[in-house]
Design goal:
This protein is an alpha+beta fold. Helices cover 50% and strands 7% of the residues. The relative contact order is 0.16.
């Protein structure tokens, strides 16, 4: 069974733009939500805050006053902290986001333990309690070994023809297990009020297509082949046969990779996800894989149209069904069935999964302890169920109220910036303001909770519980195909430390867990909060006007609302930002990809500038208190820098440079401020210093 997400996430999160790549995102699904204007009623939950790890807030003692803010702002703000805070063994990065994630995880653990201890629990508490209890039962999981998978592996062993392979792919997908491609509901690009089905590329075990062809990744490709052989051996295949099958799997995936789009391609051209076709026309493109039969097998009424994204990929899959020997198909499917389930099986499978995906690929030294791994799984399979409980104990109405004020102030500041643009024509500006007026903010947690009725869990088997949740989520998502979009849905659970913008709904979303220091601190001055969560709010709003978000209009439909001259002017400005980030070198010979990271860099630049304007307006003519010897402006930028303090393992850095649409944190700390005259003024920087970009090098977009 394959629980890992496809190479490209289902559309809703593939095109939603987040503030940081934290590696914890679940596919949003629910329809038919239960009404709740406050956190859903559960049994009495308590939280012992004394057991929670600390947050990471800006403190003056962290500053390295031996460094000049105008020359090395990152080192000035974060150098001492980064040197004193090594990456924990069970992490591949460590900074503000990770510290809040640890804190959120500690809250979740207390909640899960209480749910598991309640023998009379029902609803979401029963689901969370069952997942936690069975996940923590290492003795039972180890005793079961590979037994939970034997039925699935036996089915794969019977595949001896193209027809049987196609049938297996359909029946397996119907349970939520599809190693080849993503399939699910999302808003129609041209009619964002209604959901259609999308089929996306997938099928790869490595992070991106260049891993299969670029010489710089050949060591990882070789390690992946060894991993495949080891997994197959653990599944009962003799060593010699496992080695041969591993080569077959590599050959299989290399062929898929050649027909796939890279992450950079997909991040910089959102239209690649949208290729509307009728099922009949899709059948002609993929003669060995009937989409008409696929819809029927998934229990979805045959639509007039669906999006067959990256059609060349699906055409290649069809060819492979007809051309690739059944034994090679079986090796591929057997490996992914075992590999995808490995984190939920006995220790030998867990350790091999860790050794490749975390240790070899990303440089993680130690396996996370079982409790953290189980909570990661609960978040992925029942995140909003756990979220209902989380916000009962970890989010205050006061925080939501203050956030609403900040959002309002940021929104007003963004409108002024748009109105004052010198490079945009009046007609395009009118449409930009229309889009601005339709932004929908979501703060803390959903106004309506997802309904979990129908998900049956027990204390019998961890694997069985996960399999049930996986199928439940998949079918719930498919239940939205052909129906109106439920605009109350969230794409992240409240306990996730992140935020996002969804262009199809023109919404900005801030889960409860990010509303803590250094982002949001009820005890801090306004300047600090505007430099933290204020800039995050501005970042998400600006995503509506980045190179991809700007392709969607006020209603969320993909449309051209720019005058050609404005589009050309915008492109000229963004080209300058690409060049700026291309110039950042993370390690000798390893540069940031300015094109791949463009959308996030636009959002950082616009978000920080907008947050600064909002802070100045909120302060008005009141005297500057000069807290801890620093002015408002200085504290604003100092907290922005604090947000982006983050250490990476060398291997994690390489993966992110290849796959992540976000620039590395240390470059985000300096990239946007260096373009703002307000930063230079705040720290009395002189022309020519590294943090002062002037003339043609200065980038001002939104």
């Amino acid at each position: 069974m394959t629980f890992k997400k496809p190479q490209v996430l289902l559309l809703s999160l593939a095109i939603a733009t987040v503030v940081a790549a934290c590696g914890k995102q679940e596919t949003p699904a629910p329809t038919a939500p239960a009404a709740a204007d406050k956190p859903a009623e559960t049994s009495a939950l308590t939280l012992d805050e004394s057991k929670l790890p600390p947050v990471n807030r800006f403190v003056v003692a962290d500053l390295d006053t031996a460094k000049d803010a105008c020359t090395d702002f990152g080192g000035y703000v974060n150098g001492k902290w980064l040197a004193a805070n090594a990456i924990p063994g069970d992490r591949t990065s460590w900074g503000a986001f990770e510290m809040l994630d640890e804190r959120s995880t500690a809250v979740q653990r207390q909640i899960a333990e209480q749910a598991a201890a309640d023998s009379k629990a029902s609803g979401v508490e029963k689901i969370v309690g069952d997942l936690w209890s069975t996940g923590m039962d290492a003795a039972k999981i180890n005793a079961q070994g590979l037994e939970p998978l034997k039925g699935d592996l036996a089915k794969i062993d019977t595949l001896d023809s193209a027809e049987k392979i196609s049938d297996y792919l359909r029946t397996s997908a119907a349970t939520g297990d599809n190693p080849l491609f993503g399939f699910g509901a999302e808003a129609d690009f041209k009619d964002s009020a209604n959901n259609i089905a999308y089929a996306s590329q997938g099928g790869l075990g490595l992070p991106d297509t260049p891993y299969y062809s670029d010489a710089k990744h050949k060591d990882k490709l070789a390690a992946y082949e060894a991993h495949i052989a080891k997994v197959l051996e653990l599944g009962g295949t003799p060593a010699a046969d496992a080695a041969k099958q591993a080569k077959d799997v590599i050959s299989f995936e290399t062929r898929l990779a050649k027909a796939s789009k890279s992450r950079e391609d997909l991040s910089r051209d959102v239209s690649l996800y949208y290729n509307p076709v009728s099922p009949a026309d899709a059948d002609k493109l993929t003669p060995n894989f009937s989409w008409t039969k696929f819809f029927e097998s998934q229990g979805v009424a045959l639509p007039k149209m669906f999006s067959l994204a990256v059609p060349a990929f699906h055409q290649e899959v069809s060819k492979m069904i007809g051309e690739v020997p059944a034994e090679q198909w079986k090796a591929y499917l057997r490996f992914h069935a075992i590999d995808g389930a490995s984190p939920y099986l006995s220790d030998a499978f867990v350790e091999e999964n860790f050794n490749f995906y975390s240790k070899t690929l990303r440089g993680q030294k130690e396996l996370k302890e079982r409790g953290k791994r189980v909570l990661d799984t609960i978040e992925g399979q029942a995140g909003e169920a756990l979220g209902q409980m989380y916000v009962k104990v970890a989010f205050t109405p006061e925080s939501k109220e203050r956030m609403q004020t900040l959002v309002k102030n940021l929104s007003e500041a963004l409108k002024v910036r748009i109105e004052n643009l010198t490079w945009m024509s009046a007609d395009t500006k009118k449409k930009a303001i229309e889009k601005w007026a339709s932004f929908t903010p979501k703060i803390g947690y959903p106004d309506k909770w997802r309904d979990w009725n129908g998900l049956a869990t027990s204390r019998d088997s961890y694997y069985a519980n996960i399999k049930a949740a996986n199928e439940f989520n998949y079918k719930w998502n498919l239940g939205k195909v052909g129906k109106p979009v439920d605009k109350t849905e969230w794409g992240m659970p409240p306990q996730m430390v992140n935020a996002y913008y969804n262009p199809l709904q023109n919404e900005i979303v801030f889960p409860a867990a990010i509303l803590q220091p250094p982002f949001f601190d009820p005890k801090a001055d306004d300047a600090t909060n505007y430099g933290g969560i204020g800039a995050v709010i501005g970042h998400e709003m600006t995503h509506g006007y980045d190179d991809q978000g700007s392709r969607f209009g006020p209603t969320g439909n993909m449309e051209v609302w720019w005058a050609p001259s404005d589009a050309k002017a915008f492109s000229g400005l963004t080209d300058k930002l690409i060049q700026q980030f291309n110039g950042y070198e993370a390690a000798p010979g390893q540069h940031v990809n300015g094109k791949h990271t463009l959308g996030e860099n636009i959002a950082d630049l616009g978000g920080l500038a907008t947050a600064y304007d909002a802070m100045k307006k909120a302060a008005g003519d009141t005297p500057d208190p000069k807290t801890d010897g620093f002015t408002r402006d200085q504290r604003f930028f100092l907290n922005w820098g604090t947000v982006w303090r983050r250490n990476f393992t060398a291997e994690e850095m390489k993966v992110r440079l290849q796959t992540d649409e976000h620039a590395l944190a240390n470059f985000r700390a300096i990239g946007a401020p260096s373009n703002l005259p307000a930063f230079a003024a705040a720290f009395s920087c002189k022309p020519g210093q590294p943090m002062v970009r002037e003339g043609d090098k200065q980038v001002v977009i939104w």
